[in-house]
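Structural prep section.
Before we set up the soaks we want a predicted structure of the protein with zinc ion in place, mainly to decide which crystallisation condition to try first. Input record follows.
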Amino acid sequence: MNIIKGTVFALLIFAAPAVAQQNPDWHRELPGFKIAGNLYYVGTADLAVYLINTPQGNILINSDFPEDVPLIKKSIERLGFKYSDTKIILASHAHGDHDAAVGIIKKDTGARLMIMDADVAETESTRPGRPGAKVDRVLHDGDAVELGGSKLTAHLTPGHTKGCTTWTMQVDEGGKKLNAVIIGSPNVNAGYVLVGNKNYPQIADDYVKTFRVLKSLPVDLFLGAHGAYFGMLAKVEKMKAGGPNPFIDPAGYKAYVSEREATFLKEWERQKQNPGTPAP
Ligand SMILES: [Zn+2]
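Run finished without errors. Recording the tokens verbatim:
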């Protein structure tokens, strides 16, 4: 029993850093670009950061790791915006690859940090490896975040974390309204326990709820917390080549959500058959 517990613990501790070392795109520079309307991409080659530009300043979704902040700043400035104009900082979910630098951005810019209720404790936690940033506004499912005429809606899509958040907004592109969906995460990470999870008993039901929410959202622009979710690097190349905006991809969104749901259901079934064995 102790050996099993030890193994599970080791998996939980080492899973994230192992992934971090294996994905060179996480900290690779990608020039910032306009997605549509007042919505821009200012993250790295995989860790997504979104900028919403308004006449009253900018909103950022995600911070990435502290080492990525200089790249984010550079992207913001090269697009003609000011890092110091950041008024609000939001997050996809309370994992370091998306929020480890929220405290740094708050300190640098004076932006207000707004986080979904069930992720607040994790965001503010100062245990080793966590940033411990103070949350200025606690969000609840369906809450709106508004600035300078732009409105974002926070959808609770839990499972990956308890407060995992999918952000939606409408952007105006040439007089046309486009529905943007920024998926928080539909993924079951290595080490996750879906059956008999003492720290998160309702985890599997939460994933079920998440897929229901994701399937219900109107979508034109398919986006997410990692570029890999929506084939970003290939779409950036397509965009350079001209033609229709490749980020308008409702079919790609549907296919992605269906595939992730099938993967979750398969893993849930596997754990029901093999209780106590976490996700590989
Ligand atoms: Zn995550």
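Observations: The pocket of zinc ion is lined by residues 93, 95, 160, 185 (CB under 6 Å).
Flagged for discussion at group meeting.
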